[in-house]
Amino acid sequence: MQCWTAKGFSQMYGIDYDQTFSPIAKFESLRLLLALAVQNGLTVHQRDVTTAFLNGTLEEEVYMDQPEEYVENRKEKLVCRLNHSQYGLKQAP
Predict the structure, then answer these.
(1) Are 84 and 54 in contact (CB under 8 A)?
(2) Which of 8, 24, 59, 88 is the most buried (most CB within 10 A)?
(3) Where along the chain do its domains lie?
(4) What are the pLDDT digits (tens) for 20-67?
(5) Please, which residues have CB within 8 angstroms of residue 30's CB and are 6 or more apart in sequence?
(6) In terms of domain of life, where is this protein from (predicted)?
């Protein structure tokens, strides 16, 4: 069985997306948070939501090719519109 792949590498800046962003905490912010936790006797926990990206909604319309196993012997090429984010896209919620 073939996977659905978004092929974000084929997306072009200014046409398919306007900006990319990767939310990462600065080291200084993390250090301050940990210092406050120690000072106040608090316990720090870490959480990771593995499917957070996939549950995000898309602001732009994104279309992708169907895997070959879904394509019938037709002359026209059908595409699918994505309703939610998928791995491989430049757009991230």
Answers:
(1) yes
(2) 8
(3) 27-84
(4) 666 778 899 999 999 999 999 999 998 877 777 677 777 778 777 777
(5) none
(6) Eukaryota
